[in-house]
Amino acid sequence: MSIPKKAKTQLTELSIRSLGVIDSAEIEIGSGLTVITGETGAGKTMVLTALNLILGSKSDPDLIRNGEDRLVVSGKFQLTKELIDQAEEVGGQVEDGELIITRSVNNQGKSKMVFGGVASTASQVSEFGEELIEIHAQASSARLAKGSVQRNLLDSFAGHEELSSTYVSFFEEFNKNRKRISELKNQLQARDLEISKLETLVNDYEKVKPKAGELAELDNEITKLGSIEALNTGISQVLANISGEDSSIISLLYSDKRTLETLVGKDSNLDKIIERFADISYELSETNLDLERYLANLEADPHRFDSLQSRKSELNAFVKKYGRGEDREKALS
Questions:
Q1: Residue 140 carries which DSSP code?
Q2: What is the pLDDT of residue 329?
Q3: How far apart are CA 188 and CA 191, in angstroms?
Q4: How many whole angstroms separate alpha carbon 54 and alpha carbon 19?
Q5: What would the pLDDT profile of 106-136 be if each residue is shown by its tens digit?
């Protein structure tokens, strides 16, 4: 049984500048066998090093030739139709079936990779480079122990490329669906968590049952109950001045009011002033009564004070847990 030869890629040109002992070198590689010979230290190893750098291996500024700022290596590869499509998919430019990969490393360790005229990364090129060239060195046969390599060799020998491609397609679809299922599960978990948070909010709201303007009312009453003594003393002093038994303001105003009333009708302009004076006297009298009623209802209530403080703490804890912004009343609404 004859097995058709599978099209392969080919390295056609290698350019090296300032790499190790090599100052500058251009190597053209034809079809068939190409042998590079030289004495020890001539730079044969640097050729393999250049290839590894081009194919995405780790860079090292120590590889730069003494006295130079950077090294530059590039390789030109003749691609198969399949690899041409793959290269163009990732943005690489392929001309006449040839792809150029360039790698530069400066003396600060910074590396730059250009894949078909487009900036790329060493890891991206490394994945593509596995299909470009195969380097055999010491212990290279250890690669054959990898399951993936054995499967590829077996599929290639048996001509199962189409079956393998179909399997890969189904496997990718499987992974895509598995990823989607995982995303949906995560979304469900996030939804359940959000529902749980909302349920906790509703339960806490039902327990606290805040009312509009309640915090302002609490603050006002707490301040009032905490200032009973000062309020009592201040209002009592004012009432003593306004309506006390000895020369109170109200008694003097009423006396003056009666005097002014005897002058009504003698001058229209004065009549207006007397009318305003009468209004002020009446307003002061009403204010005096309001202060007396307020003072009569003013009393200390320690139990009420403690209850208000407890309610305020409960509302503030709710605001701190669920509120947004600095306005406490808006946070409760």
A1: G
A2: 64
A3: 5
A4: 12
A5: 999 899 999 999 999 988 888 888 788 777 7
Q: Quick count: other Cβ atoms within 10 Å of Cβ 173? A: 10
Question: Which two structure tokens, joined as six digits, stand for 254?
Answer: 């009423």
What per-residue confidence (pLDDT) applies to 327? 62
Q: Among 93, 80, 86, which Cα is nearest to 119's? A: 93
Residue type, 308: L
Domain segments of the chain as ranges: 10-135, 214-332
Q: Tell me the CATH number of domain 10-135, given options 2.60.40.10, 3.40.50.300, 3.30.450.20, 3.40.50.2000.
A: 3.40.50.300
Indicate if the alpha-carbon torsion angle 113, 115, 118, 124 is positive or negative: negative
Residue 53 has a pLDDT of 93
Closest alpha carbon to 87 in 50, 57, 115, 126: 115
The secondary element (H helix, E strand) that includes residue 198 is helix 161-208
Residue ranges in the chain modelled with pLDDT below 70: 1-7, 137-142, 246, 325-333
- Phi-psi category of residue 139: left, alpha or beta, with phi > 0 → left and psi -120 to 50 → alpha: left
DSSP, collapsed to helix, strand or coil, labels residue 70 as strand
Estimate to the nearest angstrom the gap between the alpha carbon of 24 and the chain centroid.
49
Output helix, strand, coil percentages for the chain, rounded to the nearest 5: 60, 15, 30
Q: How far is CA 13 from CA 75, 105, 115, in A?
A: 6, 20, 15
What's the pLDDT at 204?
87
Cα 104–chain centre separation: 35
For 71, the 3-state DSSP assignment is: strand
